[in-house]
Amino acid sequence: MSIVDTPERRQLRELTRAFVTREVLPHLDDWERAGEVPRSLHETAAKTGLLGIGFPESVGGSGGDLLDSIVVTEEIIRSGGSSGLVAALFTHGIALPHMVAAAGTRLGGSLGGRLGAGPPLDQDLIDRYVRPTLAGTMIGALAITEPGGGSDVASIRTTARRDGDHYVVNGSKTYITSGIRADFVTTAVCTDFPGSGELTLLVIERGTPGFTVGRRLEKLGWHCSDTAELSFVDVRVPVANRIGAESTGFLAIMQHFATERLSLATSAYATAQRCVELATRWCRDRSTFGRPLASRQLIRHRLAEMHTRAEAARAYVHDVAERVAVGEPVVTEVAMAKNVAVAACDFVVDAALQLHGGFGYLRDAEVERHYRDARILGIGGGTTEIMNEIIAKGMGL
Fold it and tell me: Is 198 known to be catalytic?
């Protein structure tokens, strides 16, 4: 029995599977075409106890840790959901942790309270944003990426100039997950000259004068996860909406990259596992030239290779996640875990669609959605190339 496979986490899997079967599968195709999931799904997930997994009860969460969050993500996809659904429903997983950590609360295997702040300011953010979001009544997003840059966080050019009890924010963000629906956006801004790397995190509410949510971005995949461009023109944000001390934003972002990357790695290997299941079922049921596809050695060996890569990726991601959960500094290993899982996913989804033949190319095929959704996993949270650079540095190169 591994740490991820305990009686309690088996019950969590059963709860997640029941939620997906009842609340997701009858509607997922419609949400894909609508371009978003309904707000009511957040409330339903909260009442079920899933939305707050990984967040302490002291801030309105359901308790548990990083490993419990991984179990939920894995089971959503294995039960017929998608990585796009995970991105849409659990965006708070990247929007809230900085607030929780700044308030000094232990979260997901890492100690908060290191960002130069604490009560009462950060506790106020817990009450105004964290609790309602974990109750499913608010939706949060994280805004870091800008039109002129992606993985180079230190080069952020959106500025925040202090003016009394407010900051005046100017700039723009893009590729913001849940940006269309978000009630607030945890936003990385530069509190020195643009590109200086002196970053601060501010919570900016929808409806604040000068804050504009731009067009809905059309994407290759993750169709049920809305994505937006954001614009800030002389937006006045109260100092009370600052997360932690000024100029601690870069550290805060870096501290939480590990959990974001492991979440994406989990989506990757879980997608691979689901596609192995779909392809195996198809090859058993589909007959050509009077014989099931699975009766052919070539097909069996391809399925065996797919299964091996998916299971190996799962085992490695679990191993790294267990080390992160107890506080080990495994930056290099997290990067390797993400790349291993993404590579396994890329191979498996391509092979699975090929085995499905023409049917796999249709929107009616679940494997078609996974094929499209998988492509972002090697880009989001740090590209494969950035992960390789981290790995190279860990090797002393």
Answer: no
Distance CA 270, CA 272 (A): 5
Confidence of residue 120 (pLDDT cuts 50, 70, 90): low
Q: How many other CB atoms sit within 10 Å of the CB of residue 11? A: 10
DSSP tag of 233: E
What's at 91, amino acid-wise?
Answer: T
Structure tokens at 89: 């429903």
Residue 112: the pLDDT is: 38
Bridge pairing between strands 211-216 and 166-177: unpaired
Q: Does the pLDDT of residue 14 top 50, yes or no?
A: yes
- Supply the pTM of this predicted model: 0.93
Locate the domains of the chain by residue range: 7-134, 140-246, 256-394
CATH class of 256-394: mainly alpha
Q: Under CATH, which number does the domain 140-246 receive? A: 2.40.110.10
pLDDT, tens digit, 9 for 90 and up, residues 15-74: 999 999 999 999 999 999 999 999 999 999 999 999 999 999 999 999 999 999 999 999
292 beta partners = 287
Q: What is the CATH number of domain 7-134?
A: 1.10.540.10
Residue 240 has a CB neighbour count (10 Å cut-off) of: 14
Separation between Cα atoms, residue 212 and residue 209, nearest integer Å = 8
Residue of 32, 74, 75, 260 with catalytic role: 260
Separation between Cα atoms, residue 112 and residue 191, nearest integer Å: 22
